[in-house]
Amino acid sequence: MNKNAIVPENDAARIDGRAFTHLPGSGADGVAHVPSTLDRVPVRGLDYSVRRWGPADAPVLFLLHGWMDSSPTFQFVVDALGKDWQLIAPDWRGFGGSTWLGHGYWFPDYYADLEVLLDHYAPGQAVRLVGHSMGAAVAGVYAGLRPARVAQLVMMDFLGLKPPPDAASPVLLRKWLDAQAQPPRLPVHEDSAALARRLQTVNPRLSAARAAFLARHVGRIGADGRVEMACDPWHKLPSPFVYRIEDVMACWRQVTAPTLMLFAEHGYVNERFATEPEALRQRLACFADHRVLTIADAGHNLQHDQPEAVAAALEAFLQRD
Description:
Blueprint: E1 5-7, E2 12-15, E3 18-21, E4 36-43, E5 46-53, E6 60-64, H1 75-80, E7 86-90, H2 108-121, E8 127-132, H3 134-145, E9 150-156, H4 169-179, H5 192-202, H6 208-217, E10 219-221, E11 227-229, H7 245-252, E12 259-264, H8 268-272, H9 277-284, E13 290-295, H10 302-305, H11 307-317
């Protein structure tokens, strides 16, 4: 682990030519945050940025962020934890400070990237995985592909996607092919304050202080001074493949780890399955050992809306032996 380049807290750095600011001990919001460090880890030909909080001799917990997000998304939960953990949160390829490809991404690469990271930080160990949204999608399938590798699993507000109504291969392939001609773009904001206002518009439960923190740490400043989310726009490219929940469920049926489903009261899972309780039951039944907990007064980003409740739920579930 010490072979990696570790960037100390409060320093500024440039990662892959882009400005990247590390989480300070306290920010403009006046809130004291648990400090983190950044490792640079080679992963399958890419340069991964991996954020770490907590003492190196504490039990290890991997935190896997969602789509169009990055590792600082877990800061509020980290701040609320009552016990010592060594928390390891990678920026997935194409997000945050990890390498951006500048072309399309293939989802199975995340399983392989995760395996390299687990071998690096916890060689030969069964690990604890906590994933939010896309991170939960990766963690859940990986736990089925490598059941002996995962000791405990937490899936935050995700239980599979809903196939689009036009999920026919010719249609999807044509959309994907058409999209190659025009590189995708992300919305650009005048400054971090404007991005913070946008985040609050999308999520009214987000406090002004937390919105300001996220705008500073999950955004990036361009050469013109304007701000956009620190995510490769090529993630917005439409998939050329039909999403088959049957394939995902087949992987879930191989999961042996005790699994906690953390749903948000007003989040994706409850909205998605409000009129399809049987579909929800079938998906949950894939996991041999699971329990469900709903976080009240939270939307899809429950780690932002109710981090104290999320932290309490994690520590009540996770074994530290």
